[in-house]
From TrEMBL:
Cellular location(s): Cytoplasm
UniProt name for this protein: D-alanine--D-alanine ligase
Keyword annotations from UniProtKB, A to Z: ATP-binding, Cell shape, Cell wall biogenesis/degradation, Cytoplasm, Ligase, Magnesium, Manganese, Metal-binding, Nucleotide-binding, Peptidoglycan synthesis
Entry binding sites for Mg(2+) 2: 291, 293
Chief place where the protein resides: cytoplasm
EC number(s) stated in the UniProt entry for this protein: 6.3.2.4
Residues where Mg(2+) 1 binds: 277, 291
Associated pathway: Cell wall biogenesis; peptidoglycan biosynthesis
Start and end residues of each ATP-grasp domain: 122-324
Top EC group: ligase
Similarity field: Belongs to the D-alanine--D-alanine ligase family.
Cofactor(s) this protein cannot do without: Mg(2+); Mn(2+)
One of the record's GO cellular component terms: cytoplasm
Amino acid sequence: MKKTIALLTGGTTGEWVVSVKSAATIAQNIDTNLYDVYKIMLNDNGWFYEPADSFKIEVDKNDFSLNFDGRKIKFDGVFIAIHGSPGEDGKLQGYFDMLHIPYTTCDALTSSITMNKGYTKSIVAGIDNLYTAKSIQIFKNENYDLKQIKQDLRLPYFVKPNSGGSSIGMSKVKHADDLESALEKAFKEDTQVLIEEFVSGREFSIGVFKAKGEITVLPTTEVIPENEFFDYEAKYTPGATQEITPGEMTEEEFARVHQIVKDVYSKLNCRGVVRIDYFLEDETGKFYFIEINTIPGQTATSFIPQQVAAMGLSLKEFYTGLMKETLG
């Protein structure tokens, strides 16, 4: 018997644009023999199912249901495709936990913690062979000493909103005088900011998921941006970045990276598919953890669809496996 699934898209941050594109990819590749899918848009104006362009049906948030065509539609599970808040930060996960509706992502606690880059780094720091760049976390309404920060960290450094995604609000600072304007930019996106020493190395992004109870690592993607770093434009403009899937690693690097990312997945208690970004440092080849995305992009230019193809799977097979694992 078919399951009735809500595909949740949109969101309340600048990442909603990416979310809509991700949901379009997912919708095209869900097995309709197994699932009836209702795409639901969540934004600042409400939660709606839109069967036609000019027609909206509001979701009943009391039990996450729809009244449509004279019947009440309840959902067996939710495919969350919202990047940023409230899809990636644990808010929706907590809501669905209270309603006892399964969903495709990490649980509320993991989602909430991993949205905070600084807290995540603290948790993964003890994993064998995993390194993190030296960093300082600051808060918007608290006093912080710019002079001390400049003394404590080596230039250049990255300034990142602590809970942001898609590299929105991020800057690479090469001159100490530019730190203040970079902080202003980051604080527009978040109340916490991470200032991190730059690691010189090759950048990679790797998908990890669980299916049939086994943690599986997708082929990695090496990222060579035309821009100064892998910013929003580089991420979502076709041709702005050279993306090599599978990325080239030695046998030793391959084995080490796979073990580290599986350990990260386990230690953070992940579910569904996540994407881990990392550097292999020039000279040493050390693995430097950058961040984890618990709802990675699924757009036509996103890494996960590229990596699934490189593994020899169709997206339909991949999403079916993901949904069976997480939605039962």
